[in-house]
Amino acid sequence: MSDKRIPMMEFINDVETFMKGKETEETLRALDERLQKYRYYEINLLQKRVRLRRQLPDFEKSIEVIKLLETKQEINTHFLMSSQLYSKARIPPTESVCLWLGANVMLEYPLDEAKTLLNKNLNTSLSNLKQIEEDLEYLRDQVTTSEVNLARIFNWNVKRLQADKESKAVKVGGGASSAEKAETLAVSAAEASAPVQSS
Questions:
Q1: Is residue 19 within 8 Å of residue 27, measured between CB atoms?
Q2: Kind and range of the H or E element at 88?
């Protein structure tokens, strides 16, 4: 899954170079959209993992029941008739068992075929669960990288705007100082050229 359907988020090492020719707002929005997709994938995988983990005990219990039936012994047990209501049952030796296949479908199988099918389903579920765990680990890395990239670009933009603001303030301040200097020089020149009155 990580190699086929979920693209990798590359870490932005040099933000200055990465942002050349790009609009900050658009870049942040695009990265945030990618981050939301990663989180959407993660939620779906977490839900699949929950379903698989619920299935595993059912497969294991069913396989144990078939192993018990294979002993060819009569079994005395209880079965659930309704909520909190059980009835005694006697199960004679049998050569077959019925399995729920889903979608309200039940089929009868010989014991050996039923055990083979259940073992196959169990192994498939375990394999899928392992793949989901790997994909979740991969997704967590992508989420972390995305969050770091967003923070770095946001901080870079704040510093850039602050530097621009300070640069403009220096220019305005420098102009006022020059005007004041020019005014001071003009006053000094006027005073120097004024006639001196004798007492």
A1: yes
A2: strand 85-91
pTM listed for this prediction = 0.71
| Cβ neighbours for 165, distance < 8 A, ≥ 6 positions apart | none
Structural domain boundaries in the chain: 32-175
What is the CB-side half-sphere exposure of residue 145 using CA atoms within 13 A? 15
Q: What's the rounded Cα separation, in Å, for the pair 85 and 186?
A: 109
DSSP-based three-state secondary structure for 35: helix
Q: Are strands 96-102 and 85-91 parallel, antiparallel or unpaired?
A: unpaired
How far is residue 15 CA from its own chain's centroid?
23
3-state SS, residue 99: strand
d(CA 83, CA 101): 23
pLDDT tens, 101-121?
A: 888 899 999 999 999 999 999
The answer to whether 122 touches 63, Cβ cutoff 8 Å, is yes
Q: What CATH number matches the domain at 32-175, 1.10.287.370, 3.30.565.10, 3.40.50.1450, 3.40.30.10?
A: 1.10.287.370
Q: At what angle do helices 111-193 and 24-69 cross, to 10 degrees?
A: 160
76 Cβ contact partners less than 8 Å away, ≥ 6 residues apart: 88, 89, 90, 91
